[in-house]
Amino acid sequence: MSIVELRQYTLRPGARDTLIELFEREFVTGQRSVGITVGGRFRDLDDPNRFVWLRMFPDMASRRRSLDAFYTGPVWRKHRDAANATMTDSDDVLLLRGPGFTPPPGTREVLATICHRPEESAFAAYAARHLNPAHALHRTEHAENDYPRLPVRTGEDVRVWFGPAEPPPWPAASLRLEPVTAVLPSGGRA
């Protein structure tokens, strides 16, 4: 299990492709170089001004060190103004514990389900019946955010899972997401 950030950015109208191009070109490798695992990156299919992504860390101490290295490092310093110019809000962040998630190659649509304050025994029965390891079930990480420069939502207890693009049988809020497929300069795929 990892520490996972589910990050949901609200962007200026028409700026999503600009951010995605910059993100894929600079920020994926920039974060990986300081020990951050960058997971799924998505376009919100119901909101053209939203970009959703995940990043993972082995533990909270690694998170703090890696975030500090990235946000004080050369990649962020060089490109932060361009990235920030695309956003109106980057503070919608859930701090989770789970396996992380990257969609399998060729996936066209993913449903990310966010279940707020589930009754534990009912949810455990639901999860045993409907979820499998491929759903990458996550739960709130209640550790204190030790990198306050980047806010996270607090006071919430959630379960988050990923799956096929169909309505889940559990009543919860869902995000319909299209995976970002990056084409690298070498012609390869990320």
UniProtKB/TrEMBL annotation:
Pfam families: NIPSNAP. InterPro entries: Dimeric_a/b-barrel (IPR011008), NIPSNAP (IPR012577). Residues 4-86 form the NIPSNAP domain. This is NIPSNAP family protein. It comes from Streptomyces edwardsiae.
